[in-house]
Structures are given as structure tokens and as C-alpha cells.
Amino acid sequence: MRKVINNIPGYEYLPHPADFRFKAYGTTLEEVFEQAAHAMFHVIIDTAALNPEHSVDIKLESRGLENLLYDYLSELLYLFEVEEIVFGQFRVDSIEKTDGSYILHGQASGENINLERHSFETEVKAITYHQLEITKEKGGYSAHVIVDT
């Protein structure tokens, strides 16, 4: 069953024997990236109760859309682990294609980790390239992602 966020047909979790696998949906590439971030963080924590106290600007450049999605999710996971911010809101303002590369501009918002208040469900160790795929579909895009837990 798909989880709908902000009236966007968000994401759904798919069966996987060891890790978490999900498919994110959106009418634009930007929406797909946002939904993939929601899906990843919802594996870690219930994001509904998080307040957008801190915002982080994100700018990335990668060769290929799959690499950009990998880098985007990896950057969010890095910020979670190093800056100790748990994110619950994601905005990708633009994904632009340049000479063989894609550039993402966006923002993630959340709050500082507070172990007395936050209950973490699953540890996401890394994003994987295994079966990572972005597909153009009728009415939008989808992204297939597996995260190592």
C-alpha cells in the first residue's frame, strides 16, 4: 500500500529478505527524490512527530540520475549520523541536467536527536546501488531503492 504525503502518491515498502526495499513515486523527479527521503527516514523513525526546527541546504552534482539519488540519500544519512539531525521534511527545489551531470538543489528540515524523546526503529547503515533505478512512468516517475539495515 502506498503512503501518500502532501497529496503526492508517496512510497511503498516492498518485500526483501534482509534489508529495506521501497519504491517512491512522484509526478516530477523532485517529488520522487523527496518521497525516497521520506521512505528512508520513516524506516529509521516515525517522522510524523518531528518538528522542522533546523534546516539544511543541500546542493549535489552527480553523473546520472541514479547516482544523484544515491548521493542525495547518502548525504541525508551522513547529516543524520554526523550532525545528529533527524529529518522529517524534504524539499527538492530543482534537478537540472547539465553537460552529462545532474545538479540537485534542496533542503531538509528536522530536529536535533534527543534520545529521551526519539525512539529509533531501525538503523540504516547505507544506501545500496543494488537494483537502484529511476523509471519514467505514465504520469510521472518512480524510484526503486534498497537500504542496508
Total count of strands:
9
Return Rg in Å. Answer: 14 Å
Structural class: alpha+beta
Total count of helical runs of at least 4 residues: 2
What is the CATH superfamily label? Archease domain
**CATH overall fold name:** Archease, Possible Chaperone, Chain: A, domain 1
The domain count comes to 1
Largest sheet: 6 strands, antiparallel
Unreliable runs, pLDDT <50, ≥5 residues? none
Shape: globular
- At CATH level 2, the architecture is 3-Layer(bab) Sandwich
Q: What is the average per-residue confidence, as pLDDT, rounded to a whole number?
A: 89
Under CATH at level 1, the class stands as Alpha Beta
Helix content: 10-25%
Strand fraction band? 35-45%
List SSEs in N-to-C order. Answer: EEEHEHEEEEE
Would you write up a description of this structure?
- With 149 residues, this protein is α+β, with helices and mostly antiparallel strands.
- It has a single domain, classed as 3-Layer(bab) Sandwich (Archease, Possible Chaperone, Chain: A, domain 1).
- 23% of the residues lie in helices and 44% in strands.
- It is built from two helices and nine strands; from the N terminus they run E-E-E-H-E-H-E-E-E-E-E.
- It has helices spanning 29-44, 65-82, and strands at residues 3-5, 8-14, 20-26, 54-62, 85-97, 102-112, 126-127, 133-137, 140-148.
- Strands 1, 2, 3, 7, 8 and 9 form a six-stranded antiparallel sheet that branches.
- A hairpin with a 5-residue loop joins strand 2 (8-14) and strand 3.
- Helix 1 (29-44) runs parallel beside helix 2.
- The longest helix has 18 residues, at 65-82.
- The radius of gyration is 14 Å and the shape is globular.
- The model has no long low-confidence stretch (mean pLDDT 89).
